[in-house]
Amino acid sequence: MSRPTKPKPAAKKVSKKATPPAGKPPFGKILVANRGEIACRVIRSCKRLGIATVAVYSDADAEALHVREADEAVRLGPAPSAESYLRIDAVLKACRETGAEAVHPGYGFLSENAAFAEALAKAGIVFIGPNAGAVQAMGDKIESKKLAQKAGVTMVPGHLVALKDADEAVKISRQVGYPVMLKASAGGGGKGMRLAYDDAEAREGFRSATNEARTAFGDDRVFVEKFIEQPRHIEIQVLGDKHGNVIHLGERECSIQRRHQKVIEEAPSPFLDAKTRAAMGAQAVALAKAVNYDSAGTVEFIVDARRKFYFLEMNTRLQVEHPVTEMVTGLDLVELMIRVAAGENLPLSQKDVKLSGWAVEARVYAEDPLRNFLPSIGRLTRYGAPAGEGVRVDTGVYEGGEISMFYDPMIAKLVGAGRTREQAADRLADALDAFEIRGLNHNISFLAAIATHKRFRAGNLTTGFIAEEFPEGFKGATPDGEARTALIVAAAIVQRRQAETEASVSGQLPGHEARVPSDLVVRISGLGDKPEDHSVALTWTDQGSYALRIGSKTIAVTSDWRTGDRVLRATLDKRAVTVQVERDNGGWRLFHRGVLARALAARPRVAALAALMPVKKPPDTSKFLLSPMPGLLKSIAVKEGQDVKAGEEIAVVEAMKMENILRAPRDGRIVRHHAAAGDSLAVDQKILEFG
Q1: Does the pLDDT value for residue 272 go beyond 50?
Q2: Scanning 138, 457, 552, 679, which has the fewest C-beta atoms within 10 Å of its C-beta?
């Protein structure tokens, strides 16, 4: 895909895709005050409704996909969000310049900023979201809990007063009873949250949550509430209009989380029964009515093992995970937000809401799961999104585009949907196998490990799932029997097809023609500690398939893969499999179910030569503290000449809106600083040197 040219504000484009519905559109032109996949998502619904769109962008996003997809685009400012996407005055100016009648804020940035909603109203521009009063009431986590309590919503025990300092954090945490959660009052998206099991963690958690909240939200207030152990995170999607009508659209289970950020979401929940769903829905609607809620929003709950639920917070915006609700209800939440913002009545009542099938969403991020999920930035040298029945991809990137250090590292949201939870999860796993991303690190192997995990498949979920199942971090996916067989078969197919291609070349020297072998020795590395050799026999059958024998096992295999295809699809005894295939120095790189393997024909001479090749040893960096990610060095807690103990905090690096504490890897003395607070760091850049 070619790189886009820098957008010009007046360049209007006409969509040739979906035909807009009959009747006058709710608005003539909408400005989307966001970026990335959510901006593209809003633009998609606007195009279907026949509404012109305006994108806004920072310098880092001048060539972004949402800029290309919109009819017009306006620059807001430099890359930092505080100087671009968070500038209310710049967004208002863009509205005036383009004649936008309404603004959709997406999620994040200004989506839950009451001052923004008020400024738009004052300028005569419609805010496609709830009224400013509801935003203000629910945007403050402390005040929202007080309002929820008055509305009869079940509450988590806690102390709904902002903490003054770390000493008070310890005092109140003791009163509430450990474990506790320290949470930013203006927080959201997992930022400004720290779990504490003792006084020391409460002190450190207060400081980190305060700093992170100040950076992310401009509001450093933090409060304490009881942490419910073995919890499930289940939220209710609500929808209201300006005429007092409020309904709910069922629940989403978002229990698979890492550092309080959702990784996998699904609708409906495999845990709720009809009685609990109805009770949670009723409380969510009661809270929405209490604040005259008039848009799409989400009421979040913590649910314990006995299905007792407690209110967490209300998000007065569209959620990242809204696609799973759309898949099981058949509704377009963005369209409904637009219509109620224009004053229309909700087109359905509670009795009209029907949940059909299942949907599971995975968040594909630019991060390295093998290095504790450190953010990854760079250019997408290859990007190939999967497609097929029950597969949905929401993205804001394209092949050749950049993932920047300034914003959330999301690449895409991938959804698998089906009649049952098993079918939805299978489609998600198959789509992950086919998702091609090159040029930077990504978390697809980790997502595949979860999507195929026995505990996940059983629906036995809690917010501690990742910590419990990957206690030492993610070390890579381990193939089960079916995945191992699929990789061996794929290796055999690519070798056989390659041999067929070579044999078909004309003009070969008589007597030395390339031949197509029926017996192969497939060597695969990446399945265990050592390379594995597998004897494979392939026989072409009259039915147009291979009879493939591995040891004593024979498998009926069909595949139309040809040399050069990047995705191999096959059936193994009628079981569909998808494997990514890439040529690699005389062999092939194979990816399936989160496992990255390398296949090579096991020829004795090749193996002997490989054994003689010198192995380059990596440089010794053990005496340095290296930055594990690109980011901003916020602070250094130690001085040159100071002795430190293993585990002691020595620096803080902020990356992609999250604060990361770096600790001493061992006892030692700091002999030199290689960077200073305020420096921008590259990955593996030296920060400190130990003696």
Answers
A1: yes
A2: 552
Q: Mean of the pLDDT values across residues 9-19?
A: 38
Please report, for residues 173, 201, 202, the alpha-carbon distance to residue 179 in angstroms, rounded to integers and kept in the order given.
Answer: 8, 10, 9
What are the beta bridge partners of residue 302? Answer: 233, 310
Radius of gyration of the chain (CA): 27
Q: Are 632 and 651 in contact (CB under 8 A)?
A: no
- DSSP conformation class of 111: T
Cβ neighbours for 402, distance < 8 A, ≥ 6 positions apart: 60, 63, 377, 378, 379, 380
Question: When comparing pLDDT for 119 and 480, which is higher?
Answer: 119
Residue 315 tokens read as 């998000």
What are 267's two structure tokens?
């609708």
Say which DSSP state 320 is in.
T
Are the beta carbons of 216 and 191 closer than 8 angstroms?
yes
Write down the pLDDT at residue 604.
36
* Domains of the chain, each with CATH number or no CATH: 29-128 (3.40.50.20), 157-226 (3.30.1490.20), 232-469 (3.30.470.20), 481-503+515-612 (3.30.700.30), 624-690 (2.40.50.100)
Higher pLDDT, 72 or 186: 72
Contacts of 227 (CB under 8 A, 6+ apart): 179, 180, 181, 195
Q: Is 191 helix (H, G, I), strand (E, B) or coil?
A: strand
Tally of CB atoms within 10 A around 243: 11
| pTM across the whole model | 0.80
Least confident of 393-407, 491-505, 524-538: 491-505
Is 313 known to be catalytic? Answer: yes
Type and span of the H or E element at 496: helix 481-503
The sign one gets for the Cα dihedral 373, 376, 382, 384 is: positive
The single-letter code of the amino acid at 320 is V
Q: Among 360, 364, 359, 362, which residue's Cα sits nearest to residue 412? A: 364
Stronger pLDDT, 191 or 335, i.e. the higher one: 335
Confirm if 521 and 535 have CB atoms less than 8 A apart: yes
Q: Which of 101, 265, 313, 321 is catalytic?
A: 313
